[in-house]
Amino acid sequence: MSLIRWNPARELGSFPSDVLNMQREINRMFDSFFRSEIPEGSPLAESVWTPAVDIAEDENGYIVQVELPGVAREQVKITMQDNVLSIKGEKAQENESRTSSFHRTERSYGSFERRFSLPSNVRQDSIDATFKDGILTVTLPKAEEAKPKQIEVTVK
Amino acid sequence: MKSNGVTGGGLPENVIMPMADIYETPDAFVLSMDMPGARKEEISLTLERGLLHVSAASGRPHVADATYLRREIRATGYRRAFTLGEGIDRSNVQATFEEGVLTVKLYKSAEKLPRDIQIH
After folding, report:
1. Which end of chain B, N or C, is less packed with Cβ atoms under 10 Å?
2. What is the phi/psi pair of residue B40, to 5°?
């Protein structure tokens, strides 16, 4: 008797195939937008830490929030090129701590970069960003034509 | 530390332990913690029987009526306690909160400070 590795996907084989196809299709849709773009050989490979990011969408646009505690405002650079939003910067240690003896270091320091490919319906000229309490909030409004429109039809 | 899974569209409570650095200067111990999204007025810092308790709700603005395409930020609050050793002046603790970082300065008590000894 030989040991066979249990493959949970095999059991899914009994699922109706259209359910599986639908799931695959949904996954593909989610993958195409806001996919994290990590080009090979980029300096990102040397990135020391990866700040956590939330991306929310509502009818007016997209809201990207990044946890950047202890990062100075002037150390953050936000760029938009070819529909790719890049947020990068550096977190430096406090001056005083550089000359002190450490008892514990759990916080991350150094350079970071996050890149996201955006849907083409973003109004690139009106992207806005605010920074408060260590959270960077980037607001990306949708173009007018991308918003759902309600059309009233008068019955004659 | 326990973290709850996301169920439905609601936001579960997820109080996490903030990451901390502790370093020593000639006159004090400095404790700094990453607490992004916390609000200064909602941070509680208490010193009781040699324990320093830190807690805060994360004021991270949640976008109502929005669909989340990516959700990596987990904390809805922070909580952590530190045991203070001997030689800390418990009446002289200072705290600041800037850019999502809470910094607590615990001054050493006078007898622990280096002092010059005079030669007679």
Report:
1. C
2. -50, -45
